[in-house]
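A quick aside before the break. I want you to see a complete sequence-to-structure record at least once, exactly as it would be stored in a machine-readable document. Don't worry about memorizing anything.
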Amino acid sequence: MFNEEEIITLIEEDEWMMEILKTAKSLNLLDWWICAGFVRSKVWDALHGFSVRTPIPDIDVIYFDTTKLNEFEEKKLEEKLKSLLPTIPWSVKNEARMHLRNNVEPYFSSVDAISKFPETATALGVKLDERDKVILTAPYGISDVVNLVVKPTPYFLENKDLASIYNQRILKKDWKATWSKLIIHQI
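That is the input. The structure line, written in tokens, reads:
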């Protein structure tokens, strides 16, 4: 089991992850983070003793900029990232507009948006400070991710109409097929 400092060290010692973080940082986005599977999968791989990285479908870069709410801006940023690291499956989202897509109340920051992700083990983000040291955000802590527990965030528990989204996501992701030690909760 890891603590926050050990998760940060795990990431800082991973050249691939650090290159991705430095590339995202180069965009100088407001309130930026790389989140979700980028962090979660690294922790689960380490806890399962995997020597080879589990492929992830995309690298989720989020930011919060109320001055540029057009999806076209996100696509331009993805193209810029692809020009810098073409083998990475970049996904860029401005959380200042994502409430419209998700049909929820507006978020007030990227960390607020992360707190409204479906699972506590996925509600994680990392970025680099001015000295290229990793900063970790975990609105619900790291207990679930390091204990291999998948359960809904309080936001999804409080909004019963989101239960089906959570349950469908759990089925679709089929994480237990990759990480057999997971304990998965349904709503």
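Two observations worth writing down. Residues 116 and 180 are 26 Å apart (CA to CA). The chain has nine helices and seven strands. We'll return to this after the break.
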